[in-house]
Design a protein that fits this description.
- The protein is mainly α and 128 residues long.
- It has 6 helices and no strands.
- The longest helix has 18 residues, at 2-19.
Amino acid sequence: MNKLMIAAIAGLFAASVSAQSTAPVPADAKKDKQEMVKDATAGAGKGYGTAAAEGSAKAAESKGTAKALPDKASKQKAVNSATSNTAGKGHGTAAAEGSAKAAGDTSPRKSKPKPKLDSPEMKEASKP
């Protein structure tokens, strides 16, 4: 009896191992995956000092370029336009204004259609 149980367990184990074998992957897929991994890890091979030196070199190259907003007035104008909506207001005030704006919206709304008693949706919903 014990030998029969051991043989049955071994057979199940062998069947499960053979069922988990992987399908062969085409060579093109392997190459594509290797290139993707190589591209993703290209920067990781460099040391911290090398990456920092490259960043410093790029910063030094761009140091002489003109700024996007050359004078102080244009910078202030850009900041004021970006923060004019919520500047000086608390979260509750801004939310209340948004709520009031939504309540004042009188555009026509579509009403939801009411299902008929003999419709398939109602029959489906009434099933226990």
